[in-house]
Amino acid sequence: MEKQNRFLAMLMFLLFAFFLGSFLVDQAEERIASFIVLFLGVAFSFIYLVQIVEASKFGFLIRMFFFALALRVLLAFLLHYFSQYGMFAEDDYYYNRVAWRIAQSWKGNYIGNVLADIDPVALGTVKEVAYGYFLGAIFYVFGNVPLAAKMTSCVIGSLTVVYLSLFTWEIFGEKPARTMAYLTACFPSMILWSSLALKDPIATFCIVFAVHKACHLLSRFSSMDLIKMGIALGILGLMRGYMFILVGGCVALSFALRKREHLVRNYAIGIIFLGILFFVYQYSGFGRAYVEQASFEQMDYYRKSLATGGSAIHVDADISSPGKALMYLPIGVTYFLFAPFPWAIRGLRQLVTLPEVLVWYVMFYFFILGMREGLKVHFQKIAPILSVMVLITLTYSLIEGNLGTAYRHRAQIMGFYLMFTAFGIHLYRERKGKERELVRQKRNNRFPVIPRP
Fold it and tell me: Residue 11 above 80 pLDDT?
């Protein structure tokens, strides 16, 4: 414990020194604004965690929060000042442009369409401007400070680490939760996508939060948990409308899957829940476009529009019918979970992902181990997690046409995969510990210790 505290203190000292040194060079105003935004985010997070985390868990989880935050802030600084803007995600740049226009329009300095001159490739993502308004509020107060926008992502990404660890603690126990904390804090893709000014960290946190509250509702009904889950789904819908439909449907479905018995009946009830959800939100207008366009032909068109550039996946693949989609699904799942493959690396950005990919190949064994045991022992508890994880994986596997997009979208549900991985690592350690103990007992029986006379 003391070694962990010393390491964390050293890391935070280096981070603080980096902040302090940055004030000595130009653009100090942006760094000061970023520090203020980071401080406010940390203060809010600390107060929030005090309210929701038990005292026995608080010490470890708050240390992991600061550890995860330090890694993300450090990477945000490096990417902001020492890499090409938009190197990993062009919508990082375009969201900053849209947010600045929104802030200027609030001040009366800009009149016109805030989405004007946005690259058509990025427009499909940026046109959901809720995140632009969020950043616009920051820019309205502090000015055009893209680094401050990244600080909000860092804080939200670190909160996601804590929430996933707390979630794992409630289901699988303390030891898997501690392993989970380190996995999510240090997993490269989760660090990367929460170090940029993107809506992904907010979307990921909302997914985790909503599923967590759904698990609480499965065990004990609470109107407050229901309201919190609804708020999280609403924010998720503002960030990614289609994810609202997927996650909301899965949460509704999970209520019918509380027990392994009568699965056919439970799935039928779940489909009815899903139909009601689609009808309600189509009628209200929220998510209507996604419901109306939900067809295999539309999915095929969307996939082909993504299958461009050097990272394109199976450009000629056809998923325009249920049969063709089913034939392509195993290939899509393989690419979504394991690409980019080491033998097919092209370009610097794919090369950067190689260490994570190799580690994930090894860790997938522990995921299978944890998933198998979880289905046997904790099926009722993990029903919402399983529903969301499977449906999002299958959906993305069909429509992903680009390795970069697949790598980015995979990070949104990687936390759920790592939950089962952490549980599998715990089971593996327990099994190896029992085997060593059995070998030791056999050795003692074979060569008994003869007491001296």
Answer: no
